[in-house]
């Protein structure tokens, strides 16, 4: 289902006027097949966009739409033109061919439209293709259209599919709204309610519910739902769901076998490859993981994300030829894709460095910054790290040291720190080129924000060891962990002794010192919720709690405490008069 | 059979070329059948069909063109599916729950104009609220091919009857024509029994359709059971019966 929903447009789109029965031609067959849903929809007043590179097909589809009564029909002959029109007009229905010749393909147009919010959640998107595409099998692409249609498309087929998609969207509307509000537990309950009244959509609703429970950190309940589905039918996505839960639970070997079975049953269930690679990785077999990613990339070669993962896995293994191929392909397909990423440029620069071509590496780093700098504020830092690594790996220690010094200056100029992985990478490089203070500061920052994550703390210790600061590292880590723990415990103590106002204030300060510490963030949100539970709803505090929770969710999505706190928070909110009815 | 089709660079190029060409052919067929359907529809407003069909000699000719265009489309679809190894895990099989009402609606919408142009009645007998698990594109392909075929051989009626029998979904396409010739009935028996035997009857397009249908049927599995196809004569109207059974 659509993850990105806009509540404002949701209400507007649902206000469909009563239909004129004349719009739908009665089938000549007798007796007429009973339509799936009783109330007809007026397709005449909607805005349509038809995208196909073949003028004959565009004309044909336009004629078909006209006989449904449609008046407002725009046309585009290429993906680029389609995006231009989508940016200008809000369409109710998009009929888009998958294969659009040179430039963006239909899937890329869909991705861009959804990511840039060029379409409403209520927009019906029908993807048209000449034959069954790999992307149409669930799990191959992140963004799915509402339906895939295979040519030739007759008027009757078009109408039946439009109606069907419309009704399905009604079934999922409230659920999508709750997902948009990140209240996944409420969304899961709404699935149950819909199953009661829509038996025909039971399987789809169960699938949605299981996914929501997984995302809410409720794997046991999600697993029950998957098992309920499997009692009815052997759905590979349910098998994959259970395997995913086992993987998260540390049962790597069982998960590996389960994912391999899923792939044996359906070779195009691409999502299973990513998970299988993860299982291999956790089993300590990075070569196997890389080989699986390579197979997946071959089956679904136009996925930016997949080529990037393959490139990074191959680079880690030192398979430069494979890494280079994947990164180059990633950059090439990214040209027309909204999902294009600077990671491919940084990765390829590393490959060039290791192949002793620092010149191309520099050129790549420059184009990455030119192309992505405006939307990735941390790119300057990351490009500088890569530059240092490239010089270091190509043996130019003088230039590597210079990059290290520049990095140190960059760090000193701002208080913001990138994510933990980047910090660790940076500290490794800085130690390697002989800088001392900056990496120590970075490592302490990482520990302060992850004081109860033993795996990460171990990694930090190893970097200290490599920088020949093992003993200092042990002492530093101990004191920083204690500092963070004390900060948290004092807040919890205030909360438990009922000093809620003081606890809220304390946690605000604690958050300033450890802005990415998940334990502290969750406790801060918990204390804000408790405050409102005892002293009543307060818009300011609720907004603060939302902000804190969304920040944790960005750091690590799918945690149980996030879902629970979001639900508690939603329950606190006084119901606005008529708000529910307006959406319904 | 694993990745052989797309392994070598040459095979990859050939695959891309075939895919692009098939795409192009589908576009042409779309325009052909779409235009014919529109022309036939415009010439035959509700009720006046029979009279017009008699008075305008172009009308039956256009109806025949539409029939041939649909045959072309069916064959192309079946060849593409075979090329993508339908019947094996290499095919992007996509099972979904579907209301019979929606399945039948789809098939009826595909066949409406051709049926009307030939003055043939489509009889429907099914439980619209029943949900079954199937690959819609493939099953619609099989059913519409069977109906196109029946349209060519029937007298004046084609019947699509779907019901649940002992945990199976039985889909029957019946007509009141002369029925299947003995050679095809034998091929149908082979198709029902085993895929490997299918090669024997791959001598004409009837064989292709039957082979495709039985491969599609077999992709539908539930517990220990697999779908199957068979041909028989008789049924409600005493003509040919195409029977698809899905677990």
CATH architecture of the domain at 7-177 in chain A: 3-Layer(aba) Sandwich
Greatest contact between two chains: A-B, 57 and 58 residues
Radius of gyration of chain B over all CA atoms, rounded: 19 Å
- Rounded mean pLDDT of chain A is 87
Strand percentage of chain A lies at under 5%
* Structural class category of chain A: mainly alpha
Shape of chain A: globular
Walk me through what this model shows.
The complex is a heterodimer of chains A (about 575) and B (about 250). With about 575 residues, chain A is mainly α. Among the domains of chain A are: about 5-175, Rossmann fold; about 500-584, Tetratricopeptide repeat domain (Serine Threonine Protein Phosphatase 5, Tetratricopeptide repeat). Chain A is built from 27 helices and 5 strands. Chain A is globular. The two termini of chain A are about 20 Å apart. The model of chain A is unreliable at about 1-35 and about 575-584 (pLDDT under 50). The longest helix of chain B has about 35 residues, at about 10-45. Chain B has about 250 residues and is α+β, with helices and mostly antiparallel strands. In chain B, strand 8 and strand 9 form a beta hairpin. Mean pLDDT of chain B is about 85; it is low at about 1-5 and about 195-200. Chain B has 2 domains: about 5-85; about 95-245, Heat Shock Protein 90 (2-Layer Sandwich). In chain B, the strands form 3 sheets. Chain B has a 5-stranded mixed beta sheet with strand order 2-4-5-9-8. In chain B, strands 1-3 form a two-stranded antiparallel sheet. In chain B, strands 6-7 form a two-stranded antiparallel sheet. Classes of the chains: A mainly alpha (about 575), B alpha+beta (about 250). At the A-B interface, helix 2, helix 5 and helix 7 of A face helix 2, helix 4, strand 1, helix 5 and strand 2 of B.
């Amino acid at each position: 289902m659509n993850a990105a929903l806009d509540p404002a447009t949701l209400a507007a789109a649902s206000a469909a006027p009563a239909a004129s029965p004349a719009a739908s031609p009665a089938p000549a067959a007798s007796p007429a097949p009973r339509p799936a849903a009783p109330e007809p929809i007026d397709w005449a007043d909607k805005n349509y966009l038809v995208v196909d590179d073949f003028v004959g097909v565009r004309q044909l589809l336009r004629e078909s739409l006209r006989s449904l009564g449609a008046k407002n029909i725009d046309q585009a002959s290429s993906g680029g033109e389609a995006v231009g029109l989508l940016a200008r007009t809000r369409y109710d229905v998009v009929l888009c061919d998958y294969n659009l010749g040179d430039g963006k393909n239909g899937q890329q147009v869909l991705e861009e439209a959804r990511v840039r919010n060029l379409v409403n959640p209520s927009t019906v998107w029908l993807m048209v293709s000449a034959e069954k595409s790999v992307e149409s099998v669930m799990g191959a692409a992140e963004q799915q259209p509402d339906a895939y249609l295979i040519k030739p498309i007759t008027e009757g087929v078009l109408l039946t599919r439009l109606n069907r998609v419309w009704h399905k969207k009604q079934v999922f509307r409230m659920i999508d709204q709750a997902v948009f509000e990140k209240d996944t537990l409420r969304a899961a309950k709404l699935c149950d309610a819909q199953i009661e009244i829509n038996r025909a959509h039971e399987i789809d609703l169960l699938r949605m519910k299981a996914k929501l429970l997984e995302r809410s950190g409720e794997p046991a309940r999600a697993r029950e739902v998957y098992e309920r589905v499997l009692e009815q039918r052997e759905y590979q996505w349910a098998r994959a769901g259970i395997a995913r839960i086992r993987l998260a639970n540390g049962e790597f070997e069982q998960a590996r076998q389960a994912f391999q079975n899923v792939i044996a049953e359906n070779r195009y269930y691409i999502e299973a490859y990513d998970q299988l690679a993860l299982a291999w990785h956790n089993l300590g077999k990075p070569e196997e993981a890389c080989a699986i990613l390579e197979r997946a990339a071959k089956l679904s070669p136009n996925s930016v994300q997949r080529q990037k993962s393959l490139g990074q896995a191959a680079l880690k293994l030192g398979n430069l030829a494979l890494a280079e191929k994947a990164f180059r392909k990633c950059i090439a397909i990214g040209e027309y894709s909204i999902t294009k990423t600077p990671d491919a440029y940084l990765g390829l620069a590393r490959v060039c460095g290791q192949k002793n071509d620092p010149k191309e590496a520099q050129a790549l780093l420059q184009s990455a910054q030119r192309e992505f700098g405006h939307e990735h504020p941390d790119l300057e830092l990351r490009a500088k790290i890569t530059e240092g690594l490239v010089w270091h790996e190509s043996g130019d220690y003088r230039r590597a040291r210079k990059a290290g010094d520049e990095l140190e200056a960059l760090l000193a100029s701002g208080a913001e720190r990138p994510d933990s992985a980047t910090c660790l990478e940076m500290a490794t490089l800085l130690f390697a080129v002989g800088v001392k203070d900056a990496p120590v500061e970075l490592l302490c920052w990482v520990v302060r924000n992850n004081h109860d994550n033993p795996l990460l703390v171990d990694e930090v210790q190893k970097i200290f060891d490599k920088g020949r600061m093992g003993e200092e590292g042990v002492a530093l880590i101990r004191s920083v962990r204690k500092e963070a723990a004390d900060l948290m415990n004092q807040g919890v103590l205030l909360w438990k002794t009922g000093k809620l106002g003081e606890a809220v204030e304390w946690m605000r300060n604690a958050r300033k010192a450890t802005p990415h510490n998940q334990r502290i963030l969750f406790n801060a949100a918990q204390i804000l919720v408790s405050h409102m539970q005892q002293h009543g709803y307060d818009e300011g505090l609720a907004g603060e709690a939302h902000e804190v929770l969304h920040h944790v969710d960005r750091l690590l999505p799918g945690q149980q405490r996030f879902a629970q706190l979001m639900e508690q928070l939603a329950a606190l909110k006084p119901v606005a008069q008529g708000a529910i009815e307006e959406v319904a | 059979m694993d990745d052989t089709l797309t392994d070598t660079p040459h095979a990859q190029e050939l695959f891309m070329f075939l895919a692009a060409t098939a795409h192009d052919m589908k576009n042409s067929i779309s325009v052909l059948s779409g235009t014919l359907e529109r022309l036939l529809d415009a010439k035959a407003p509700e009720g006046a069909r029979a009279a017009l069909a008699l008075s305008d000699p172009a009308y039956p000719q256009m109806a025949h063109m539409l029939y041939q265009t649909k045959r072309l489309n069916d064959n192309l679809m079946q060849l593409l599916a075979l090329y993508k190894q339908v019947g094996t895990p290499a095919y992007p099989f996509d099972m979904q729950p579907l209301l019979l009402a929606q399945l039948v609606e789809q098939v009826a919408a595909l066949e409406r104009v051709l049926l009307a142009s030939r003055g043939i009645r489509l009889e429907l007998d099914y439980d619209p609220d029943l949900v079954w698990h199937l690959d819609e594109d493939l099953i619609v392909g099989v059913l519409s091919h069977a109906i196109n075929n029946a349209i060519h051989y029937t007298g004046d009626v084609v019947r699509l009857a779907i019901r649940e029998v002992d945990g199976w979904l039985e889909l029957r396409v019946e007509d009141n024509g002369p029925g299947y010739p003995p050679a095809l009935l034998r091929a149908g028996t082979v198709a029902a029994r085993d895929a490997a035997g299918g090669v024997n009857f791959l001598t004409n397009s009837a064989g292709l359709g039957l082979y495709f249908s039985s491969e599609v049927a077999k992709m539908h599995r539930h517990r220990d059971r697999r779908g199957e196809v068979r041909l028989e004569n008789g049924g409600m109207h005493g003509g040919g019966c195409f029977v698809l059974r899905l677990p």
